[in-house]
Amino acid sequence: xxxxxxxxxxxxxxxxxxxxxxxxxxxxxxxxxxxxxxxxxxxxxxxxxxxxxxxxxxxxxxxxxxxxxxxxxxxxxxxxxxxxxxxxxxxxxxxxxxxxxxxxxxxxxxxxxxxxxxxxxxxxxxxxxxxxxxxxxxxxxxxxxxxxxxxxxxxxxxxxxxxxxxxxxxxxxxxxxxxxxxxxxxxxxxxxxxxxxxxxxxxxxxxxxxxxxxxxx
Length: 217
Hints:
By secondary structure, the chain is mostly helical. It has helices at about 1-25, 30-40, 45, 55-75, 80-95, 100-110, 115-120, 125-135, 140-165, 170-185, 190-205.
Protein backbone atom coordinates (compact mmCIF):
# COMPACT_ATOMS: atom_id res chain seq x y z
CA UNK A 1 0.00 0.00 0.00
CA UNK A 2 2.86 2.36 0.90
CA UNK A 3 4.47 1.73 -2.48
CA UNK A 4 1.22 2.53 -4.28
CA UNK A 5 0.90 5.77 -2.30
CA UNK A 6 4.48 6.67 -3.20
CA UNK A 7 3.80 6.04 -6.88
CA UNK A 8 0.66 8.17 -6.80
CA UNK A 9 2.55 11.02 -5.13
CA UNK A 10 5.37 10.72 -7.67
CA UNK A 11 2.82 11.02 -10.48
CA UNK A 12 1.27 14.05 -8.76
CA UNK A 13 4.70 15.71 -8.47
CA UNK A 14 5.47 14.88 -12.12
CA UNK A 15 2.23 16.43 -13.33
CA UNK A 16 2.80 19.49 -11.17
CA UNK A 17 6.35 19.86 -12.52
CA UNK A 18 5.11 19.62 -16.12
CA UNK A 19 2.73 22.54 -15.52
CA UNK A 20 5.46 24.65 -13.90
CA UNK A 21 8.02 23.76 -16.58
CA UNK A 22 5.48 24.79 -19.18
CA UNK A 23 4.83 28.13 -17.51
CA UNK A 24 8.30 29.08 -16.24
CA UNK A 25 10.69 26.78 -18.10
CA UNK A 26 12.96 24.09 -16.64
CA UNK A 27 15.72 26.48 -15.51
CA UNK A 28 13.49 28.91 -13.59
CA UNK A 29 11.36 26.23 -11.93
CA UNK A 30 12.79 25.40 -8.52
CA UNK A 31 12.13 22.52 -6.15
CA UNK A 32 10.78 25.13 -3.70
CA UNK A 33 8.17 26.17 -6.29
CA UNK A 34 7.15 22.54 -6.85
CA UNK A 35 6.83 21.93 -3.11
CA UNK A 36 4.70 25.05 -2.64
CA UNK A 37 2.37 24.00 -5.47
CA UNK A 38 2.02 20.46 -4.11
CA UNK A 39 1.47 21.69 -0.55
CA UNK A 40 4.59 20.24 1.06
CA UNK A 41 5.71 22.01 4.25
CA UNK A 42 9.37 21.80 3.29
CA UNK A 43 11.69 20.51 0.56
CA UNK A 44 12.55 17.40 2.59
CA UNK A 45 9.17 15.99 1.54
CA UNK A 46 10.17 16.31 -2.14
CA UNK A 47 13.34 14.29 -1.55
CA UNK A 48 11.29 11.41 -0.24
CA UNK A 49 10.14 10.84 -3.84
CA UNK A 50 12.91 12.24 -6.08
CA UNK A 51 16.61 12.77 -5.50
CA UNK A 52 16.79 15.96 -7.58
CA UNK A 53 15.06 18.16 -10.13
CA UNK A 54 17.23 16.44 -12.75
CA UNK A 55 15.76 13.04 -11.87
CA UNK A 56 12.29 14.54 -12.11
CA UNK A 57 13.02 15.96 -15.57
CA UNK A 58 14.61 12.71 -16.72
CA UNK A 59 11.37 10.88 -15.84
CA UNK A 60 9.51 13.27 -18.11
CA UNK A 61 12.08 12.66 -20.88
CA UNK A 62 11.80 8.90 -20.43
CA UNK A 63 8.02 9.13 -20.71
CA UNK A 64 8.50 11.05 -23.95
CA UNK A 65 10.98 8.46 -25.28
CA UNK A 66 8.54 5.64 -24.56
CA UNK A 67 5.75 7.47 -26.41
CA UNK A 68 8.02 8.01 -29.41
CA UNK A 69 9.11 4.36 -29.49
CA UNK A 70 5.50 3.17 -29.29
CA UNK A 71 4.54 5.63 -32.02
CA UNK A 72 7.38 4.47 -34.30
CA UNK A 73 6.42 0.82 -33.87
CA UNK A 74 3.10 1.63 -35.55
CA UNK A 75 4.61 3.57 -38.48
CA UNK A 76 5.27 1.75 -41.75
CA UNK A 77 4.73 -1.78 -40.52
CA UNK A 78 7.64 -4.04 -39.60
CA UNK A 79 9.76 -3.28 -42.68
CA UNK A 80 12.20 -1.01 -40.83
CA UNK A 81 15.80 -1.74 -39.95
CA UNK A 82 17.44 -0.56 -36.73
CA UNK A 83 19.07 2.56 -38.15
CA UNK A 84 15.92 3.64 -39.98
CA UNK A 85 14.08 3.44 -36.65
CA UNK A 86 16.82 5.40 -34.91
CA UNK A 87 16.83 8.12 -37.55
CA UNK A 88 13.03 8.26 -37.67
CA UNK A 89 13.08 8.85 -33.93
CA UNK A 90 15.34 11.87 -34.40
CA UNK A 91 13.16 13.28 -37.19
CA UNK A 92 10.06 12.90 -35.06
CA UNK A 93 11.91 14.55 -32.18
CA UNK A 94 12.61 17.58 -34.38
CA UNK A 95 8.97 17.75 -35.42
CA UNK A 96 7.71 17.53 -31.84
CA UNK A 97 10.10 20.30 -30.84
CA UNK A 98 8.56 22.71 -33.29
CA UNK A 99 6.21 23.25 -30.38
CA UNK A 100 7.77 26.15 -28.39
CA UNK A 101 6.94 24.66 -24.98
CA UNK A 102 8.44 21.27 -25.81
CA UNK A 103 11.48 22.92 -27.37
CA UNK A 104 12.07 25.12 -24.32
CA UNK A 105 11.98 22.19 -21.90
CA UNK A 106 14.20 20.02 -24.12
CA UNK A 107 16.86 22.67 -24.71
CA UNK A 108 17.02 23.91 -21.11
CA UNK A 109 17.23 20.40 -19.68
CA UNK A 110 19.78 19.15 -22.22
CA UNK A 111 21.97 22.23 -21.72
CA UNK A 112 22.45 21.20 -18.08
CA UNK A 113 23.63 17.69 -18.92
CA UNK A 114 27.12 16.21 -19.00
CA UNK A 115 27.85 12.92 -20.77
CA UNK A 116 27.81 11.09 -17.45
CA UNK A 117 24.62 12.70 -16.18
CA UNK A 118 22.85 12.08 -19.48
CA UNK A 119 23.82 8.41 -19.36
CA UNK A 120 22.61 8.14 -15.77
CA UNK A 121 19.53 10.35 -15.99
CA UNK A 122 18.20 9.25 -19.37
CA UNK A 123 19.29 5.61 -19.85
CA UNK A 124 17.01 5.20 -22.88
CA UNK A 125 19.34 7.55 -24.76
CA UNK A 126 22.32 5.26 -24.21
CA UNK A 127 20.50 1.95 -24.67
CA UNK A 128 18.82 3.01 -27.89
CA UNK A 129 22.12 4.00 -29.49
CA UNK A 130 23.94 0.87 -28.29
CA UNK A 131 21.31 -1.63 -29.37
CA UNK A 132 20.38 -0.24 -32.76
CA UNK A 133 23.75 0.90 -34.07
CA UNK A 134 25.45 -2.32 -33.03
CA UNK A 135 23.06 -4.10 -35.39
CA UNK A 136 25.24 -2.67 -38.17
CA UNK A 137 28.97 -2.70 -38.73
CA UNK A 138 30.43 0.43 -37.17
CA UNK A 139 34.00 1.59 -36.66
CA UNK A 140 33.06 3.20 -33.37
CA UNK A 141 33.17 1.71 -29.91
CA UNK A 142 30.10 2.07 -27.74
CA UNK A 143 31.83 4.74 -25.67
CA UNK A 144 32.75 6.71 -28.80
CA UNK A 145 29.15 6.54 -29.98
CA UNK A 146 27.96 7.88 -26.65
CA UNK A 147 30.37 10.79 -26.83
CA UNK A 148 29.41 11.64 -30.42
CA UNK A 149 25.71 11.45 -29.64
CA UNK A 150 26.13 13.61 -26.55
CA UNK A 151 27.75 16.36 -28.60
CA UNK A 152 25.18 15.88 -31.33
CA UNK A 153 22.30 16.41 -28.89
CA UNK A 154 24.09 19.31 -27.19
CA UNK A 155 24.68 20.94 -30.56
CA UNK A 156 21.09 20.35 -31.61
CA UNK A 157 19.89 21.97 -28.38
CA UNK A 158 22.10 24.99 -29.04
CA UNK A 159 20.69 25.37 -32.56
CA UNK A 160 17.11 25.26 -31.28
CA UNK A 161 17.92 27.79 -28.57
CA UNK A 162 19.56 30.13 -31.08
CA UNK A 163 16.40 29.91 -33.22
CA UNK A 164 14.25 30.90 -30.23
CA UNK A 165 16.61 33.75 -29.30
CA UNK A 166 16.61 34.92 -32.92
CA UNK A 167 20.38 34.56 -33.05
CA UNK A 168 20.21 32.39 -36.15
CA UNK A 169 18.40 32.49 -39.48
CA UNK A 170 18.20 28.69 -39.49
CA UNK A 171 14.65 27.34 -39.27
CA UNK A 172 13.35 24.18 -37.64
CA UNK A 173 12.51 22.82 -41.11
CA UNK A 174 16.10 23.34 -42.24
CA UNK A 175 17.34 21.51 -39.16
CA UNK A 176 15.13 18.55 -40.04
CA UNK A 177 16.41 18.60 -43.61
CA UNK A 178 20.08 18.57 -42.57
CA UNK A 179 19.79 16.30 -39.56
CA UNK A 180 19.68 12.83 -41.20
CA UNK A 181 23.02 13.11 -42.97
CA UNK A 182 24.77 14.64 -39.95
CA UNK A 183 23.32 12.03 -37.61
CA UNK A 184 24.44 9.04 -39.68
CA UNK A 185 27.79 10.57 -40.54
CA UNK A 186 28.58 10.82 -36.83
CA UNK A 187 27.92 7.09 -36.56
CA UNK A 188 30.43 6.43 -39.39
CA UNK A 189 27.77 4.77 -41.53
CA UNK A 190 28.87 3.98 -45.10
CA UNK A 191 27.74 6.74 -47.51
CA UNK A 192 25.72 4.48 -49.83
CA UNK A 193 23.98 2.77 -46.92
CA UNK A 194 23.45 6.20 -45.35
CA UNK A 195 21.52 7.44 -48.39
CA UNK A 196 19.28 4.36 -48.42
CA UNK A 197 18.52 4.82 -44.73
CA UNK A 198 17.76 8.52 -45.19
CA UNK A 199 15.44 7.86 -48.12
CA UNK A 200 13.52 5.19 -46.22
CA UNK A 201 13.29 7.22 -42.99
CA UNK A 202 12.11 10.35 -44.84
CA UNK A 203 9.54 8.29 -46.73
CA UNK A 204 8.10 7.04 -43.46
CA UNK A 205 8.39 10.48 -41.87
CA UNK A 206 6.43 12.12 -44.70
CA UNK A 207 3.59 9.64 -44.17
CA UNK A 208 2.93 11.00 -40.68
CA UNK A 209 0.31 13.74 -40.48
CA UNK A 210 0.72 16.78 -38.25
CA UNK A 211 -2.18 15.78 -36.02
CA UNK A 212 -0.46 12.47 -35.25
CA UNK A 213 2.25 14.33 -33.35
CA UNK A 214 -0.30 15.65 -30.87
CA UNK A 215 -0.35 12.18 -29.31
CA UNK A 216 3.34 12.55 -28.48
CA UNK A 217 3.26 16.10 -27.11
